[in-house]
Amino acid sequence: MHLIQEQRLIHWPDRHFLLRHPAHFLALGFGSGLPRKAPGTWGTLVGIPCFIGLMQLAEPLHYLVLAGMFLLGIYICGIAGKALGASDHGSIVWDEIAAFMLVLEFTPLSWQAWLAAFLLFRLFDIWKPFPINLSDRHIKGGLGVMLDDLLAAGYAIAFLQGGLWIKLNYWS
User: pTM of the prediction?
Assistant: First the structure.
């Protein structure tokens, strides 16, 4: 970890940065955002055990928890982004965790469906089709970090549901 005079991180964060503030720990996905290669993919994978934990709650509570995670994400990702000197630093993965949990909420409980959900979410999160690309470019801070992944989750859910509808109506 390297610091400049304003205590802003100019290189990739390390374990010390992760543990310096609770917002850093959460925004960096409990450490899953620390690897330099594919941190978004690692963060998305952390969404799986988090969603399995969420499944222990009554279903109506899922939406409250997911909404709370989104709102909390605006706050913690904003704090981590300021400390890192980049509002949507690659190591921030709370947005992937929360958004992928939302995708799983609309995904049937099978490994094939969860694999398809994972691949679709990663595709749209990396590709950033319209309007995700506009959101990514023009909305900064914690809201911008969370919003583009929420939009990618919307695309993934729509394609999953469309695929399930086609399978049910034409391949059964």
Answer: 0.92
Residue 7: strand, helix, or coil: coil
Q: Could you give the CA distance from residue 56 to residue 39 in angstroms, rounded to a whole number?
A: 27
For 68-114, give the DSSP string: HHHHHHHHHHHHHHHHHTSTT-TT--HHHHHHHHHHHHTS-SSHHHH
Structure tokens, 114: 């969860």
What gap in Å lies between CA 23 and CA 91, rounded to an integer?
13
Give the C-alpha separation, 172 to 43, whole Å: 35
**Res. 168 pLDDT band, cuts 50 70 90:** very high
- pLDDT digit string (tens) for 115-166? 999 999 999 999 999 999 999 899 999 999 999 999 999 999 999 999 999 9
> 117, 103 in Cβ contact below 8 A?
yes
- 96, 26 contact by CB (below 8 A): no
Neighbouring C-alpha atoms within 13 Å toward the C-beta of 105: 21
Q: Are 99 and 150 spatial neighbours (Cβ–Cβ below 8 Å)?
A: yes
Report the C-alpha gap between 70 and 47 in whole angstroms. 13
Instruction: List C-alpha distances in Å: 135 to 26, 38, 51.
Output: 23, 21, 26
Tens digits of per-residue pLDDT, 84-108?
Answer: 999 899 999 999 999 999 999 999 9
